[in-house]
Amino acid sequence: MINKPTGGTSRANHERDGSGLTDLCARLVQKYVLDCQKFSAFYTGTATRPVWDRILNEVTGNEELAAEFAMRPQPYFDGQSIVSHCTTQEGIQAVEGFLTQVEYGVYA
Question: What does the alpha-carbon distance between residue 75 and residue 43 come to, in Å, rounded to a whole number?
Answer without folding.
Answer: 22
